[in-house]
Amino acid sequence: MASSSFSANRQVNFALSGVGAIVAFWVAIGGFIAFGTPAFGQGNNSQAPAPTAQASANNGQAATATSAPQLAATRTQTVPDPTRTQASNQVATATAASADTVVAAPTVSDSKPAATQVSAANRPQGQIAYTCYDGIDDEICIIKPDGSGLRQLTSNDVEDYYPSFSNDGNWIAFARQMTPGQSSRFELFRINLKTDQVSPLTKNGSKNASPAYSWDDTQIAYTSKLNSRHHHIWIMDADGRNPVQLTSDGNNFDPAWSFSGEWISFTSDRNGSRQLWIMRYDGSEQRQITDFPQFGGRNDWSFDDRFIFFYAGEKGVDRQIYRVELATGTVSALTQDGLSAGPGTSRYGGWIAWQSAAKIWISREDGSGAYFLPKSSEFDYQPRWGP
User: How does 317-342 read in b/e, with b if 16+ C-beta sit within 10 Å?
Assistant: First the structure.
């Protein structure tokens, strides 16, 4: 059975479905109606290590936390560069009232590209993992971006959420509810796509969610409440060993690893409201990127590390997909429907996926060429791209 927090989200979406006729025009030109994300984050190469039957190192034990660096009141921010070379990193500056204040007030572009017809030859490659509601509970599914290759990976009486592909395409990590109807304990698991074997990554009895593989597949970033009243960002080895806490202030959700491997984006409410933050993969240089009302959770990086895609706004009113250019702080709105959420980017560059009207939508990174995949369940959401 689905937990109450997720059921509430579904009831809202059923109520919103009655406005479908009003937004039909937007759907015709690539507008989008999104399904809200779950409550964790308002929400989602070298070869991967060989599978292990059990992750024993963390077993509920505390991990050593790295302290967040103290930033000067006036600082120079080094941001990821599209070429991903250390010598050519671009620099943006901001004067802050305190150590962890906004990097730059966003400049939002109101120019929204119109949807265009996408030929089969130009459509994106790879696979998309997502959460699919089968009428009883949430499971993990995968599909190709042309709508073929649909496959449901899990089937049980508990909730499975937040799928994340490894970059070699061999694994999907996800969060599983351990007791039906109770949201107090989620553990992380991974499934071997060659053998369908499912093995645990965490066994600590806490709220663990939102796994994200590093670019080389050696580590996984995730959210956990282990040994804390608050959610924090952790990293661990890809087999679940050696967990390390990276954040220490406020509630922190929805980590996403940059394709360069140097940065992790996440959301945090440490300055009052939930906003987009970034930090180095070791937890250093933590800094706030956005200052948006009603900021969402799931976010992801462009392949060149130039942009981060996110969603913000009140659901049913002005919730949209945005992208922020890290070097300038410029924010562009990519959707117009008021319900879009949960963006995930292509490992091949140039494309994003997100959830809308209980469907998975796909467009180019500038919002053009939008189309949706056939629904595979009552609700399809939390897309994450893989090879």
Answer: eebbbbbbbbbebebbbbbbbbbbbb
